[in-house]
Design goal:
The protein is an alpha/beta fold and 155 residues long. The chain has six helices and four strands, in the order αβααβαβαβα. α2 crosses α3, α3 packs parallel to α4 and α4 packs parallel to α5. The structure holds farnesyl diphosphate (FPP). The site of farnesyl diphosphate has 19 residues, from α2, α3, β2 and α4.
Length: 155
């Protein structure tokens, strides 16, 4: 699906090998919800489900690395209620998805500045990384609290 669309857009032949790494910016969750008269949080929930579908597809076509830019440092400026809902969604996703990710050989790594997270969210970040550390089929990189400025400063 994703790669088929990419092939079509770039006019690549169907025989062209699968790239090693694809990165996606998660965007439009809020607009998706607004269009349907739903709260923004509902858009994030569906966004997380869409990410699950994409990750499954990525694994099935033999992609080795899939990065999703999920939460930037700018996103902390959103209403507290929305930020809390996103953090809660992340923690719930860890609980719900970890067993299947382990079964499917998917390793999850979280990149970004960990300084801003609550103890609870940090524990879920560490949990998903350690529970899936043995995965060798696909590495899912979740960019959480990222910004080009902070990456340059850290470098
Ligand atoms: C971008 O859409 C999305 C976000 C800022 C948050 C996405 C985070 C999650 C769904 C949390 C859990 C993630 C995973 C992968 C388990 P937007 O709100 O900027 O939408 P808009 O552009 O329409 O305003």
């Amino acid at each position: 699906m994703l790669f088929d669309l990419f092939r079509k857009k770039k006019k690549l032949s169907p025989e062209r090998p699968v790239p090693t790494h694809i990165a996606i910016v998660m965007d439009g969750n809020g607009r998706w919800a607004k269009k349907r008269g739903l709260p923004r949080q509902a858009g994030h929930k569906v966004g997380a489900e869409a990410f699950r579908t994409i990750a499954n597809y990525a694994k099935s076509i033999g992609l080795k690395y899939l990065t999703v830019y999920a939460f930037s440092t700018e996103n902390w400026k959103r209403p507290e209620e929305e930020v809390n809902a996103i953090m809660e969604l992340f923690c719930k996703s860890v609980i719900n998805e970890s067993p299947e990710l382990q079964k499917q050989g998917v390793r999850v790594q979280v990149m970004g500045d960990r300084a801003g997270f609550s103890e609870k969210v940090l524990s879920y970040i560490e949990r998903i990384e350690s529970e899936t550390a043995a995965g060798e089929r696909l590495t899912l990189i979740l960019a959480f609290n990222y910004s080009s400025r902070s990456e340059l400063m850290a470098a």
